[in-house]
Structures are given as C-alpha cells and as structure tokens.
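Appendix C: a fully annotated inverse folding record. The material below is reproduced so that readers can follow the format used throughout the book. The structure is listed first as tokens, followed by the designed sequence.
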C-alpha cells in the first residue's frame, strides 16, 4: 500500500473531503503508475479519482466499531515519534 495513504476510519473529527480525495488520488496514481496523466488520459484519471473517493467516503461512513474514535493530533504525535525512532531526528517525518 502507498505509505502516503492514511487510515481514515474512526477518527475525531471524521475524515475531511480533502483527506478522502488525497487518499483516492494516491491510490489511482499507484495502480495506474502515473503521477500526472497525459491530456489524453486526464478525464479518465479524474473520473477514477472521483469514483474511488466516493466509494471510500461510503466505506468510511458506513463502517461500525465499538472502539472509541482516535484523536488525530495524538496519532500524528505517535507517528512522528515512530519516524524519529526509525529514521533519526533528521528523518523523513
């Protein structure tokens, strides 16, 4: 899976449209192997992003869990700490 696609389910506040679209864009880029489509493929590329975003939105909105929602900022801090442990203080995060 793409490293840039982040979990979107069970967060407070819920995933935004921008986050859902960004995940869809990363997915379409990955499966197509194209970072920026040619003009000939632009329409289909954008259609795929919109369709994947729609399916993702539906999935995130309809999944159920008994777990309490995760806090976005707390998860961001944890991820940053993992990156420091993995890559060092001057790492990627």
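Designed amino acids, in order:
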């Amino acid at each position: 899976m793409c490293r840039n696609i982040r979990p979107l389910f069970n967060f407070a506040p819920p995933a935004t449209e921008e986050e859902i679209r960004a995940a869809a864009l990363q997915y379409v880029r990955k499966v197509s192997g194209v970072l920026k489509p040619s003009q000939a493929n632009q329409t289909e590329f954008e259609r795929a992003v919109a369709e994947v975003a729609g399916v993702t939105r539906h999935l995130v909105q309809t999944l159920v869990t008994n777990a309490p929602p995760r806090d976005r900022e707390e998860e961001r801090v944890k991820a940053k700490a993992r990156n420091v442990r993995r890559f060092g203080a001057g790492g990627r995060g």
